[in-house]
């Protein structure tokens, strides 16, 4: 999943907040996986609910990256004009 998200980010020219969010989401998923007790239904349910945070981290990264991107493109156009 993270590889495909990184590829999609590269292809859509995302900026650094996107990649930071990928790293944070990866660390969160790693933490969830390491502490998972597959034989405990309550623990599995809690880990499933914790995945909401992964989605929120990625959403924030995409939004921040998109907000920064137009500034970067505008600066590049100004340099080309000069």
How many helices? The count is 3
Radius of gyration: 17 Å
Strand content: under 5%
Distance between the termini: 42 Å
Structural class: mainly alpha
Q: Percent helix among the residues?
A: over 70%
For the sheet with most strands, the description reads:
none
Shape: elongated
Overall mean pLDDT score? 89
Task: Report low-confidence residues grouped into runs of 5 or more.
Answer: none
Number of strands: 0
The helix/strand series, from N terminus to C terminus, equals HHH
Number of structural units classed as domains: 1
Q: What is the gist of this entry?
A:
The chain is mainly α. The chain has one domain (2-81).
Model description:
- It contains three helices and no strands.
- α1 runs antiparallel to α2 (about 15-35) and α2 packs antiparallel against α3 (about 40-80).
- The chain is mainly alpha-helical and about 80 residues long.
- The protein has helices at about 1-10, 15-35, 40-80.
- It starts with a helix and ends with a helix.
- The chain has one domain (about 1-80).
Provide the fold topology:
Layout: H1 2-11, H2 16-34, H3 41-81
Helix pairs in contact: 1-2, 2-3
Main traits of this protein?
82 residues; mainly alpha; 3 helices
């Amino acid at each position: 999943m993270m590889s495909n998200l990184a590829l999609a980010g590269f292809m859509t020219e995302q900026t650094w907040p996107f990649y930071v969010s990928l790293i944070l989401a990866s660390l969160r998923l790693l933490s969830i996986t390491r502490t998972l007790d597959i034989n405990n239904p309550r623990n599995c349910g809690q880990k499933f609910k914790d995945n909401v945070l992964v989605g929120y981290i990625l959403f924030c990264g995409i939004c921040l990256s998109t907000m920064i991107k137009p500034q970067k493109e505008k600066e590049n156009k100004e340099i080309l004009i000069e």
